[in-house]
Write a structure and sequence with these properties.
The complex is a heterodimer of chains A (about 180) and B (about 180). Chain A has about 180 residues and is mainly beta. In chain A, a hairpin with a 7-residue loop joins strand 8 and strand 9. Chain A is elongated and about 95 Å long. By secondary structure, chain B is mainly beta. Chain B has a single domain, classed as Sandwich (Immunoglobulin-like). Helices cover about 15% and strands about 35% of the residues of chain B. Chain B has 2 helices and 12 strands, in the order αββββββββαββββ. Classes of the chains: A mainly beta (about 180), B mainly beta (about 180). At the A-B interface, helix 1 and strand 1 of A face helix 1, strand 2, strand 3, strand 5 and strand 12 of B.
Chain lengths: ~180, ~180
């Protein structure tokens, strides 16, 4: 009988052992943005050529090998960057009569001339980079060099005669 | 409630036994019990840590490093802690860790690679607090009916590769055992 009495008491003793608990969930969110590179402005003086180097018909159009001028868009210190998009100027930088070339912005510039930019280290080959075009590149190291080449170009409409040539455009680099 | 019900059953059992015994016998009555720790009310925590550029992290695959720009304070705030003298906070589980055991894993889909959350505890927060590893227990004494566990989270680069852009997210459950 005493044993029976004890059993329920033991059961009672076990009950208070459960500890009081509560739980709370913690959520943390955020993001990492692409790193950036250091870029350098590019200024190039292209060799002067004679007007006679261009096609001598009003409708003729061509580049001039003597004006080939390589340049680089050079990025350094690209920490945390896996690639980038380069936007080359804007459509407003184009020659209206030859929209794949950059407009001669010189005052009283040489008529019917523009600057043809290609993606290459040697102007004789390479894809044309139109004003406003986007190039997408993948980086494997912390530096990246985009080789380009510029040359004078005669577009259709008249004959080239003497005068200055100049163009400017902004390359917008978006990193990822 | 369930404890009270068990107590009643036990007493009934004892009375029944006593009725069977002879009249001249004395009956001993034992009553046992205890007071459980009280509990507190606790609120879930949801924090967005400021975005930082990938370039703020070490640019060497094998290196680790954190981002001070991401320091984000938060608290586990307990209120209404009547009858509570303290508690043990278990901060998530080992399964919440990254390949670096003291860093909470980035659980975001396609998350920024080689990143995680470094959580520190104490009023020193992210600059001088103690590291809270996933699954770690922190024991605190309470002197009032409210308690705040001071914490701070920051992004950290773990070894293995370079950090590049992407989301970060982690979540874990804090289990609080009162006393």
């Amino acid at each position: 009988m005493n044993l029976l009495n004890c059993l329920p008491l033991l059961a009672l003793c076990a009950c208070p052992l459960a500890a009081a608990q509560s739980t709370v969930r913690v959520d943390l969110n955020g993001s990492i943005q692409a790193g950036t590179c250091t870029t350098a402005a590019v200024t190039k003086t292209m060799p002067a050529v004679k007007a006679s180097a261009f096609p001598q018909t009003a409708a003729g159009k061509a580049g001039v090998a003597a004006s080939y001028t390589p340049f680089d868009v050079a990025l350094t210190g690209c920490s945390g960057v896996t690639g980038a998009n380069f936007v080359f100027g804007a459509a407003a930088d184009a020659e209206p009569q030859q929209t794949d070339s950059f407009r001669n912005k010189a005052t009283n510039g040489a008529p019917f001339t523009a600057i043809w930019v290609r993606e290459t280290a040697a102007c004789s080959t390479g894809a044309t980079v139109r004003p406003g075009a986007t190039l997408s590149k993948t980086f494997a190291t912390a530096t990246y060099t985009l080789p380009m080449c510029a040359q004078y170009y005669k577009f259709a409409g008249g004959l080239v005669s003497m005068g200055p040539l100049t163009t400017t455009f902004t390359v917008t680099v978006t990193y990822r | 409630m369930s404890t009270h019900l068990l107590s009643l059953l036990a007493l009934v059992g004892m009375l029944a036994c006593g009725a069977d015994a002879a009249a001249q016998n004395s009956a001993r009555v034992d009553l046992n019990g205890s007071i459980d720790a009280g509990t507190c009310s606790v609120a879930a925590v949801s924090k967005t840590i400021p975005a930082v550029g990938a370039n703020v992290f070490p640019q060497v695959a094998g290196n680790t490093g954190s981002a001070p720009a991401s320091y984000t304070d938060f608290e586990i705030a307990l209120t209404g802690c009547s009858g509570v003298t303290g508690a043990t906070f278990q901060m998530g589980a080992v399964a919440d860790a990254s390949t670096q055991a003291n860093v909470f894993r980035n659980k975001a889909t396609n998350g920024a690679p080689f990143t995680g959350y470094w959580i520190k505890e104490g009023t020193g927060r992210c600059t001088a607090g103690a590291t809270v590893a996933p699954g770690a227990s922190i024991t605190k004494n309470f002197t009032t009916a409210t308690y705040q566990l001071y914490l701070c989270a920051q992004y950290v680069k773990i070894a293995g590769g370079l950090v590049t852009m992407g989301p970060l997210s982690t979540n874990f459950t804090v289990t609080i055992t009162y006393r």
